[in-house]
Amino acid sequence: MNLLVNGEQTSLTNVATVSDLIAALEIGSNVAVEINREIVSRSAFDQRRLADGDEIEIVTAIGGG
Amino acid sequence: MNASVLPVAEKPDEDTLIIAGKVYSSRLLVGTGKYRDLEETGRAIEASGAEIVTVAIRRTNIGQTKDEPNLLDYVSPDRYTILPNTAGCFDADSALRTCRLARELLGGHDLVKLEVLGDKKTLFPDIPATLEAAEILVSEGFKVMVYTNDDPIMALRFEEMGCIAVMPLAAPIGSGLGIRNPYNIRTIVENAGVPILVDAGVGTASDAAIAMELGCDGVLMNTAIAEAKNPVLMASAMNKAVEAGREAYLAGRMPRRAYASASSPIDGTFFS
Predict the structure, then answer these.
(1) For chain A, which terminus, N or C, has the lower number of CB atoms within 10 Å?
(2) Chain A interface, mutation test: which of B45, B55, B62, most A Cβ atoms within 10 Å?
(3) Cβ atoms B178, B170 nearer than 8 A
């Protein structure tokens, strides 16, 4: 499946849901996710299915003022 | 009378800062940017005594190891009120997306610091875009602390829209120039029915004290602490400056006079 993740073209196999994607990218769980500009509730990460061409933003909190 | 039984503190017991219905004893709010590492960030915040701490929302570093420490491990939402900001947003839509993502990230926490910036040189706020974003955020139930310029008319406008705190700049973000227009800040405070916090431009402890002496409800800063040679010591200085400035404001300063007024009595001298 081809996805645009944080602005980078990414090709992944065996990734069906947001939870799968987070696991495949080996990023921590302190994240929020937007797919095609729609927020995905954290409680829906296991259910929300991905589709080819999805534009995904995965964000977290970093230092800022 | 035995002087030792006199009460020492005259500061009102109930002098607290209330933001979105929550009571805070510290009036210093601090950012988490520009520190050497997360460990220094944690120690500086501890020394500052701050209870409200700002964070930025950014893309996760894809490819980072799963074990890489997260800011929220050092600045725990269990201990601090996390105030996500919209720094880096130059239009209303980016700010809205940032706030919505932040709310999801922080488990429904709806307190945000809204800033929509006009240009990179000054980082002055884009007021029309800030108004547009504030209106939508308020309608979506966010509790908006809004970064604005030191314009008393705009400060009132944001309050009337439902922003829960108004945060005029003292000087440009990261400039350390101190309070450029104390008369405007004082007017904003006089007019306000919501907390007014100076946000941005503080350079050193005296700047923070002046903001508090003008009657501000609090001060928000980042660079003044993070870019000090010793950030942890500066954080401690800011903690004291904010407290000293607040007490001076409550105490009420003496009037300014053009000429001297002797502190020792003129009468009763034994010489002539």
Answers:
(1) N
(2) B62
(3) yes
Contact between residue B83 and residue B114 where contact means Cβ atoms under 8 Å apart:
no
- When pLDDT is cut at 50, 70 and 90, the band that residue B135 belongs to is very high
* pLDDT at B81 > cutoff 70: yes
Q: Which residues of B are catalytic?
A: 113
Does residue A22 form part of some domain?
yes
* pLDDT > 80? residue B1: no
Q: List strands edge to edge, sheet with B143-148.
A: B111-114, B143-148, B165-168
Residues of chain A with C-beta less than 8 angstroms from the C-beta of B81: none
- CATH classification of the domain holding A10: 3.10.20.30
Q: What does pTM read for this prediction? A: 0.92
Q: Which domain holds residue A37?
A: 2-60
Nearest residue in chain B measured CA to CA from A37? B97
Between the alpha carbon of residue B231 and those of residues A48, B89, B234, the distances in Å are: 43, 27, 5
Q: Does residue A51 sit within a domain?
A: yes
- Please check whether residue A28 lies inside any domain of the structure: yes
Residue A21 lies in a domain: yes
Structural domains counted in chain A: 1
Judged against a pLDDT cut of 60, whether residue B8 lies above it is answered with no
Q: CA distances (Å), B22 to each of B1, B26, B99, in order?
A: 41, 12, 20
Closest Cβ–Cβ partner in B62, B101, B173 for A6? B62
B40: left (phi over 0), alpha (psi -120 to 50) or beta: alpha
